């Protein structure tokens, strides 16, 4: 198989990140450094990264997390902030888990962690276009005309966002906020917050509640659980 897919199967990282390891010249196959992304590997080959031998994960791990605010969705953070891997480290101290996609520092909700680099690559590839559903709370009210602008797509950094689904779930007169359910298929940086910012609305709370038909269930904020066989099967076939 291709070298980047092999590295991903070893739970090293996503395919894209694995490609960078190859280009950086830290991957060796049978004692020879490989920098060609078209190189292929057999299961019988000896593969090392930075001198450490790696092997494919025969049984992958799939975790559903309810990410809290104030945690970064990275493997490590140069600013010393808590990462999503720090949350699971006590149960998986020596496992190469990595997050599928990202949730912003101030956003909470459904996040998948896995050793399956192949699945991560497919779910995060732009061509997949799987819906990510969020519950957003904004200051003040919102009109149907304003929601229509969001649905059609707005221009962020010179690029128009793809069409989305958005509906108001009601206005809270006590807190003077409106709760909105919005579903997007892209993953631009702070996309939902910036979409509403363009129409003059400030998002005060944002939570991802679903990825496609996979809903955030049975997981308290800041905790996690192993995904069921049915949930994993859904993601593999979505």
Give an account of the 3D structure.
The protein has 238 residues and is an alpha+beta fold. It folds into three domains: 3-54, RNA-binding S4 domain (Structural Genomics Hypothetical 15.5 Kd Protein In mrcA-pckA Intergenic Region, Chain A); 62-127 and 216-237, Alpha-Beta Plaits (2-Layer Sandwich), CATH 3.30.70; 132-211, Alpha-L RNA-binding motif (Alpha-Beta Plaits). It is built from seven helices and 15 strands. It has helices at 3-9, 15-23, 84-88, 117-124, 144-152, 191-198, 229-237; strands at residues 27-29, 32-33, 47-49, 52-54, 62-67, 98-99, 108-114, 132-139, 155-156, 159-160, 165-172, 177-184, 203-211, 214-215, 224-226. Strands 5, 6, 7, 8, 11, 12, 13, 14 and 15 form a nine-stranded mixed sheet that branches. The protein has a four-stranded antiparallel sheet with strand order 2-1-3-4, with no helix packed on it. Strands 9-10 form a two-stranded antiparallel ribbon. A hairpin with a 2-residue loop joins strand 1 (27-29) and strand 2. Helix 1 (3-9) packs across helix 2 (15-23). It is elongated. The mean pLDDT is 92.
